[in-house]
Amino acid sequence: MCGIVGYIGKKNCVPIIIEGLKRLEYRGYDSAGIAVINEAKSTVIKNKGKVSLLEKSTENVNLNSPLGLGHTRWATHGIPNEINSHPHCNHDQSIMLIHNGIIENYQVLKTMLIKSGFKFISDTDSEVIVHLIDSFVHKGYGLFKSVRFALNEVEGTYGIAVISTKEPDKIIVAKKGSPLVIGIGENENYLASDVNALIAHTKHVVYLEDGEIAEVYADRFTAKTIEDEDIQKEIIELTMNLDEIDRGGYPTFMLKEIMEQPDSVTNSMRGRLIFEEGTAKLGGLEAVLNKLIHSKRFIISACGTSWHAGLVGEYMFEQFLRIPTEVEYASEFRYRNPIINEDDTIFFISQSGETADTLAAMKEAKRKGALVLGICNVVGSSIARESDGGVYIHAGPEIGVASTKAFTGQLTVLALITMLLARKKDMSLADGKALYNEFIQIPEKINRILALNEQIEKIAEEFKDSNNFLYLGRGYNFPVALEGALKLKEISYIHAEGYPAAEMKHGPIALVDENMPVVFIAPKDSTYDKIVSNIQEIKARKGRIIAIASEHDEEIDKLVDFTIKIPDTVRILMPMLTVVPLQLLAYHIAMKKGLNVDQPRNLAKSVTVE
Ligand code: F6R
Hints:
The protein is an alpha/beta fold. The protein folds into three domains: 3-243, Aminohydrolase, N-terminal nucleophile (Ntn) domain (Glutamine Phosphoribosylpyrophosphate, subunit 1, domain 1); 247-450, Rossmann fold; 452-600, Rossmann fold (3-Layer(aba) Sandwich), CATH 3.40.50. The chain contains 18 helices and 27 strands. The strands form five sheets. It has an eight-stranded antiparallel beta sheet with strand order 3-2-4-1-10-9-11-15, covered by helices on one side. A seven-stranded antiparallel beta sheet has the order 5-6-7-8-12-13-14, with helices on one face. The N and C termini lie close together (11 Å). The relative contact order is 0.09. The model has no long low-confidence stretch (mean pLDDT 94). Bound molecules: fructose -6-phosphate.
């Protein structure tokens, strides 16, 4: 949510900032802006629209400066337009600020500042911070102290960066609730809301924690808490490479990430499966294993696609571990004062590890004494760092806004956790080994599904003009139906709903006529016969049926309009296969409608506001 970038050093910062913003555009793309200081003179350029437009505007002005900030916005307060885009400035453009997050008490602060004579030009909450800083500068404080004092007055979340023409040797950065990372170079330093913007320049980074503020010079940085205590920050070396965040020859990040799944799933399980013991080894859980296994209850909390993975996790945990499991939307969980006991374990699933609702729910659960575990993709993310333990999915950077390979990575890790705990409970060695054998075949089976790409594209052609879709599945495949529907609506803007197949009779069947495509997830498992009855019910009402079915199921061809035949596996691993054709179907429908699948309207990856 909103990308922020900054540079201080000897080079011209403009191309560095523009390139960084392009790498962060998946966080927000409704407007963008840049502010630079050269010889105590500031220049600010802002545009509604994409970073490419901003790039053109900067080329026309021919900027050259060793200090600057850039921002790509996902609007919260105020429509996307030039005035509301960042950087925001004080009256004489001597102080410039970029902000990611939400200032909750901005109205009160704005009224107070207006009374004191400050003039506002935008509708944003962010603008109050820059005037507040200015109000302290007016009182004679330096930039660092002014920022610190200002932040003591604001309520809400922020990742900010501030520069001033009066102190052009530094950038002030601070964090609370929104990510901020400093990139350490040689006689130059960088900052960004995530490491993707830095990786081309440095692998050495410092993550700010909530309540920390830093003064970043070209050759050094110092950090304090907002309360003014000195702190030492650790410099971390990143292991990620630049080619991981490029499209790698694919037309879109989303297609690249779908196609990468045989590798990303392999990476999620790499080194973690032990054949001889028919179990899994998960280093991040070792220290908490005893408490974990004796938990009375599991709760899984997450948002969006990660929540769907959590629903699959519920089936896994209850079937194999017999531990009661509840799955909660993180946004609801934190606001309804949930009953949490000390013998509960709460898993927080998040690709980005920065989702504001999930992070806040985690902090609440921690406060109440539960064991708090993270299942994240982004290494070093807030959720990963604040949990008592956890497991990374190691799917590699996910840039497409619609989550694909993170979902299969999350399912892999949930199945590994299940295997590890089940082997400590009732699962026999033989069953553990059988599960191992199924597990290691998954990447190759995903490959076989990806080979159906052209067939799925043809089905997409048939249905691209539909206005509605139903997705139906049972058991482990009910959450997959929800995920298939979410993929379609977020990138193709077609209304789609996922339902448990049998539940359809209790309402949604009223929607079915000859114009309603219905996607059934119908592999040959123990619910197969029931699903076939549900297919008959839709067929009787003339719905057009696409079935995701087992490779050797010939019966189903007679019942449905289109089949996508996929390999089988055991039930616990099946969602890792059944979701793949649904990702491709949504992808091709959206592409055929001429839409931008990597940056769908109104969305942004990593929702760091509540
Ligand atoms: C859907 C999607 C979102 C995210 C959700 C949670 O394709 O990407 O629904 O799954 O915003 O994000 P994370 O997993 O980063 O917490």
